[in-house]
Amino acid sequence: MILKEDKLSKLLQKYPQERRHTLAVFQDIQHECGFLPKEHIIEAARYLKTPLAQAYAMVTFYRSFSLLPRGKYVIKVCDGTACHIKNVQGRLDCLKRVLGLDPGETDKDGLFTVETVSCLGACAISPVMQINEEYYGNLTEEKIYEILADLYRKEMRKL
Amino acid sequence: MKKTILVCCGPGCIAYGGLDVAASFREKIASLNVNATVETVIKQSGCHGFCSRGPLVRIMPDDISYYRVKPKDTEEILHSLDKDPVERLLFHNVGGGSVKSQRETPFYASQMKLALRNVGEIDPGSISDYKARGGYEALRKALTMEPEDIIAEIEKSGLRGRGGAGFPTGLKWRIAAGYDNFPKYVIMNGDEGDPGAFMDRALMEGDPHGILEGIIICALAIGATEGYLYIRDEYTLSLESMKEALADAEKGGFLGESILGSGRSLRLNVVRGGGAFVCGESSAMIESIEGSVGEPRAILAYPTEQGLWDKPTVINNVETFINVPLIIRDGSAKFAATGTKTSKGTKVFSLAGKVRNSGLVEAPMGMTMRKIIFDIGGGVVGNRKFKAVQTGGPSGGALPESLLDLPIDFDTLVRYGSMMGSGGMIVMDDWTCMVAVAKYNIEFLAKESCGACVPCREGLRALSILLTRICDGEGEVRDLEIIRSICELLRQTSRCGLGKTAANPVLSTLKYFPEEYEEHIREKHCRAGVCGMGRNTEVKDDVDLADIAAMARAARKATFGETREKGPDGSVGGKKENGTHNNKSTNSTGAES
Fold first, then answer.
1. Residue pair B90/B100 in contact by the 8 Å Cβ criterion
2. pLDDT tens digits, one per residue of A126-147
3. pTM
4. Selected residue of A79, A84, A116, A140 to mutate for chain B interface (largest B Cβ count, 10 A)
5. CB A156 to CB B559 under 8 A?
6. N or C end of chain A: smaller count of CB under 10 Å?
7. Complex ipTM
8. What superfamily in CATH does domain B127-336 come from?
């Protein structure tokens, strides 16, 4: 989703025109759009009086930014140490089987994105994944299938 | 009679439905009007610690703890408030019998809560809860003290940086206070990046004012007038909690212009991290706050001399700050009475992995790892055999059972090739392959290396390739020699702590579990069956996949039926020329014009 011009400038104007706000501005844009559209990066860099190369370096350095559109449901599978030793790969295989997605991919319908993250900080309930803001802990294969089925059901009901 | 029901709303309990339990309590109280004689207050508190048995509920002042509470249990609990507790929800000992108070359970009995003093006891969103437990008293006291005396008190307490490096906090403050170069800055490091660590998050979400009070006292001591709280963007709850606390503290006069009418001011800002592990390094964090790529600086001067915008800056970890009010309020002697000779106070650990009672644990420095893992943690889950414990996050080491009686503090574990680090503690059983663990840690560090210095960037990549080869059964004996020499290179020549300590996971596993490397290389065998060379690791399809796949297709069709044929920009779907990104760009130009 790309922001309308007035909405973008409203977002930018919350911050003084200083380079130190680059990270915050990009986070806000990503929050609104789900990713960082090229046009917005250019506009934000201009506003923050930051060279475009510098802004682009920020976008590619920090892991939380995405240059590609992401799905309505962003599935972040935790690959922290505690989760890893409890067979995260098996959980990723489950997602792959149902959604056909490897980590970093988004389906054609823009419904699901699968990502791995370093640690969600919920190791006591590992293996764990996060879908948008919600945490799902002690994941088993059955649980993953149920969660996905629920989401699909929800999508169907909306129509 | 007044009763308080504390519902744990830490991340673990929320995932188990803690919020529903809290909602159910509220609803039941309103609708049932039970126990008119009992005035009941529901509080959503921070993490109680015993995450593996959540959602947790505690009734105060009776100190009754309930475990695995479901919304359907709330009515029974409310009816029991002035009677006997609900037996089935209590903690049951292995030998039989149940206990009411959490202090009587093996998980809590040997713990000592200093940093976690308020976590799980108060509503983190309520400044009056915090004040009722002695909050902001230390600040009032600090305002009557000379900065020099505050620093001396912290020095005498022996407090050392909880982020992992263990630098003496008082000394750090003294150095920064010594420069006449204003403005000075104070930074809170809440960029908890170690996989397997969730201590700082529990503190930020459970007792935000405790941290703020420590930060304000630090600012008074060094003469800082501005500060930054650098918090991981992934920690949504922590960000909310700290922002709310900032606003409340400002309203209460504890922050902002003229703190409590003293004429001294402090402005604090929240900065959201960008998900880069290396930003936990102090100079990288400074770069990040300044609006740059988080690459560590080549050290010419420490941040205490030239930090943020080249001004004297103190960066301390969340847990370091939360200990400060305690030291100022109760005196350094009381704090220094706990711990070992060189490491004072307590340390919060996040106990996870293949351990029965996983959760948040606070223990006095010097407690043995055996006690933490077996007494508090209840041993290895599923009656498997203990193999190793990884301390200190990805750059720590894995230690075998023979070393479990080592006391845990800043200095001991370093001598054995690991470190206490920020407090992550991951237990591994005999189904864990130590070569694969080393490979996992190296791959993580290689991914997170900022790439500015060559040894770290290239060395970690080479290590990762070599370890992958060994795990795939293609390793050669001489690989071990190459691995050792790269490790040495990393340790000696890297620019920052990430590279300097990156060899730990490899060297420690090589040292304590050499036979596993040997087996992988010579016999092409993985005794844990992880590397696909031993036990069959094939995953079975025992769920009706066909149904789910069919449903998925149906849902997709129902959702996108018509629009799938044509893209929003009028292009024909499926035939994509330049990938999704470009496709979207075309779309956007359409929307803008």
1. yes
2. 899 999 888 999 999 889 988 9
3. 0.88
4. A84
5. yes
6. C
7. 0.92
8. NADH-ubiquinone oxidoreductase 51kDa subunit (3.40.50.11540)
